[in-house]
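Recall that a protein's primary structure is simply its ordered list of amino acids. Everything else, from secondary elements to tertiary packing, is in principle encoded there. The following example makes that idea concrete.
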Amino acid sequence: PQPDLVTNHQDITITGALTTGTSLTFTSTVKNQGSGDAVTGSIGRWCVDGTESQCAGAATPSTQINTHTFGAFDPNPFTSSPRTSNGWTATAGPHTIWWCADVTNVVTNESNESNNCHSKPFTVSAAPQPDLITNHQDIQITGALTTGTSLTFTSTVKNQGSGSAAPNSIG
């Protein structure tokens, strides 16, 4: 009997707002759908972007978020408890999360090595930005308009953007 460790893209969940700067975590499981036991020490790896072969390889890729070491897997239908990645700080644009089982090939007699990785695409939006505007018709001048006199200018600033603006002042 041979083990067969598998991951499932439909099982990958993403926690956190899909906006720039948010810390995202990813959760999934590994299942032994084979008829044999899988030995202790199998390592699962989370990667953002890159390729399947990079995430599944024995070398640590630059796209790695973190790894998990698993105990022994009984035969079918044993499923691990959910494993959650470390936080990844989201950057704008399209991305792919990879979840790969047995990246160091500790389980040497698997019946199918081609189903150890799955991915899930996702897109991160830019964080909402402020857009501060003034109206030239709203500007008020206080003081005498003579040479050498100090003048005070006042106006209203409006944020027409979708993000918050930090407190600010001029002068």
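The mean pLDDT is 90. The longest strand covers residues 93-100.
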